[in-house]
Every structure is written in C-alpha cells, then in structure tokens.
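Tutorial handout. Part one gives the primary structure; part two gives the three-dimensional structure as tokens.
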Amino acid sequence: MNTERREGDPVGAARKNRNGFGCMKKLVLFNGSPRMDGNIATLLNVISRGAQDAGAEVKTYTLFKMKFMACQSCFKCRIGTGACAVNDEITSALEVVKSADAVVIGSPIFMMQMTGPVKNLYDRLFPLMDTEFKPRYGTKKMATVYSQGMDDPHAYDSYFEYTAAMFPSFGFDCIGNLVCTNANDPESAERNAELKIQAYELGKALVR
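Part two.
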C-alpha cells in the first residue's frame, strides 16, 4: 500500500504517521445509509483506512443490502448462551461483533432520527446484554457516525446523547461521534478535509 503523501490529501498526510503493526485487532462497521456512495460510506471508508493502517482487520456491513428481520421480542436471548432465535444475516453479523474489539455504526438522520434499519440493528443487539442489562462479551470501543441536512453540527446533540445511553449495556465504550453536515449533498464529507482527518484518526484510536 502506498502511504506517500499526495498533494491536497490530508488523510494521506496523516497516514505517514501511522503506528506500527501490533497484534491484529478486529473492527466491525455498519453502514445504515441507503446511499451506497454517500457521506456515511465516505466517512466509514476513511475510518476503515485508519484502522487498517494501524494493523486491524475490518469487516463492513451495509444494512440496506442485507436481508434481516426486526427483533421479535421472543426473549430467547435472555436464556442460556444468549443466542438469537432469528436466523438471518444480522445473526451472523452478531457473531462477528461478539469477537470484535471495536464497532462503528453510521446513519443519516431521517425525520430527526436514525434510519429504520439502524434502529432494527440496535434492537437486534439485545443478545449482547445479559438479564441484568450488563454486557455479556466484555467492553468494546465504539463510535457513531451521523450525517444530516442541517448545517449546525449540534442540532441533534440531545438525540445522539439519548441514543448513546444504551451503549454501556452492550459493552460499548463510545470514544467518538462524527457528524457530517449539509449532507443532502452526497459529497459533503468528501470535501471536508478536517472531518476526514478526524475519521482517519478515529479509525486508529478504535483499534489501539
């Protein structure tokens, strides 16, 4: 991989200062946007680059391409090993999350909330917590990525904080939240050099 600095490429500049490779960590990314090449995908790709440059293995799931059901509220995961009763593509993704070191979940803001598939994903993470709402699989670093049409990055802070309140029960230690503004333009993140540097550094921090 060529890590030489390219003119006008702030991420390329940051990559020159990457850490040495250690034991391989695992990072799981979930893209909850219907835009396959939109702002969420851009930032997740940069996070992935940062993590890979730090020596990590990265697995990405695109929720809008996956076939999965919403949580059925059957409570099967409350007993035994905590296995989910539903057998679909999220079930297999859950197994990857269980053994991962870090998780990132990205979503555009639709109608002042995360997208439907991302809400379904959070519900399906229920098996990660035990009957006392404590994590079954230890603590993992976690980050969130949001995009929004509004230009104020703090417009939905209260919603982001509300959502993050459930993370400790999953065992998620949230170390970062990136917000891409003016995201009705699908290239807003691509043109935001500062945000891309933050995403790259976040990728490295998630797997340290």
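Part three, for discussion. DSSP finds seven helices and five strands in the chain. The longest strand covers residues 172-180.
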